[in-house]
Amino acid sequence: MTPKKLIFLLLIIFSTISFIRLLILTSITSDPIPTPPPPPPLSSRNHLRSSNPQTPKPPPPTPPSSDSDPFSPKELLLLQTLISTRSPRNILFFGITPQLLDLAMSNAAGHTIIFLVNEEFEEFDRVRARGIEGIGIYYIECEVMAKQAYELLEYARVTPACRPNDGPTYESRCRLALRGLPEIVNKVRWDVVVVDGPGRGGGPEEPGRMAAIYTAALLARAGNSTDVLVHNVDRTIEKWYSWEFLCSENLISSKGRLWHFRIRGRSNSGRFCS
């Protein structure tokens, strides 16, 4: 083979390799970061007192896309990559599924806490049956129903007690703050917080994730830098409350129905978002 033909062949090989690498990189990059939707407006006092039957009402929570709502492969890959890159980590889960339980077990050298909320008795039995050591499992009650989401969002916007502060969550007088959390939750600086509960179905009579997202925002601000991931953001509540308390400027990536926020803590600001 002549030198010219050899050079030509090498150029073809290198070009093919570069094209394949480009395709691989394109396939694993994050989905486009969504544009923030217009937030639900605050009602005026007259609006709240009006008895006009034509007064607009908030839309009902968006139904889920499936009954079990598992993480898709690309959503799960985002979580796996985040946890494995800097293991061990301090990880807090609101809600648990078999997929998340496997992730919790992969953080054996770190500190992991799982909150099982209200209806998750089956998940509790599954965790207990596997005899996992080194993982704190707590059962907490959540009395905030999904149908209260719009009312509580308006309440939080005008209530000084719901503004971010440096105190522990159990001292918060905001109705959105989760009660009965163990003291260790406020002592640990969390690296990752995953919100996938309560409320699997997203129906109006089910527990909503408003309090979990709000509490996750408080805990994240108490740390140095915390990654907060919220699942099922195709639903109205998860979307509204993520924008309100985790903030669009902190959204660094998205995969399917999973949003990934990075919250810089130690802020003296009296607001969640800039």
From TrEMBL:
An example GO BP is:
xylan biosynthetic process
Compartments annotated for it: namely: Golgi apparatus membrane
Q: In what ranges is there compositional bias, type Pro residues?
A: 33-42, 55-64
GO cellular component, as recorded: Golgi membrane
Task: Identify the InterPro entries for this entry.
Answer: IRX15/GXM/AGM
Q: Do you know which Pfam families this protein is assigned to?
A: IRX15_IRX15L_GXM (PF21729)
Which portions of the chain have biased composition (kind: Low complexity)?
A: 43-54
Name the predominant localization.
Golgi
| Keyword Cytoplasm found | no
> Which superkingdom?
Eukaryota
The alphabetized UniProt keywords are: Membrane, Transmembrane, Transmembrane helix
Give membrane topology per the record.
Single-pass membrane protein
Renumbered to this chain, region (Disordered) spans: 33-70
Record protein name field: Glucuronoxylan 4-O-methyltransferase 2
UniProt source species: Ananas comosus
